[in-house]
Structure formats: structure tokens, C-alpha cells
Amino acid sequence: xxTVRAKIDPAIPASLASGRIDRARVDATTEADLGRQATAxxxxxxxxAAKFARRVRKRLGLxxxxxxxxxxxPLETIRNWEQGKRCPTGxxxxxLKVLDKAPEAALAALQ
Length: 111
Fold this sequence. Notes:
Layout: H1 23-28, H2 31-60, H3 64-71, H4 75-83, H5 90-101, H6 103-110
Helix pairs in contact: 2-4, 2-5, 3-4, 5-6
């Protein structure tokens, strides 16, 4: 792999790489556009969290009811996580991460 060093001076516009940003497009972006993008980003994050919660449960080979009982979380909460209606936060998110990385130890500790 070859390393290339470039010196960029913000005071000299010619030293800035062209094509990195479309200034006209940035200037034309409205607050409504930003709001729509933020909403889309949030929806994507919720979808990712839902896929993660579902994947952890399925890797353990448990139904939603069995999973909720094993980790002592209401069944409706598990369903909300997996459907993307709610996102696990705080301790729940940490528990899912531990269950993903060390499922046997985590389940043994929860008994």
C-alpha cells in the first residue's frame, strides 16, 4: 500500500479537494430536508436494533415467550423490540450485547 501525503490549507481554495462537497446542494438544503433525514436515520437505527434483538434471540434458539422469561423482560417488550416499535436502551442493550458475545455465561448468570 502506498502512502500519499497532501497538504491542505483552508485559506487557499485551490488546495481543497474538488468534488468533496456540492456547496449548491448544501446551501439549498432546508430545515424540512434535515428533519426528514433525521427521521429516516432514526427509523433505520430502530430497524437495526430490531434486527439485532431478533438475531440474539434466534441464536439462543428461544421463542419470544421463552426469551422474555429467561431475561426477565415482559413479552410485550420483546415484541416491541423485534418489531422496531421500541429500541432497547441502557441495561437492556448491554444485556443483549452480552447475550450475543457470551450467551452461556449470560444465561447461567441470569438463573
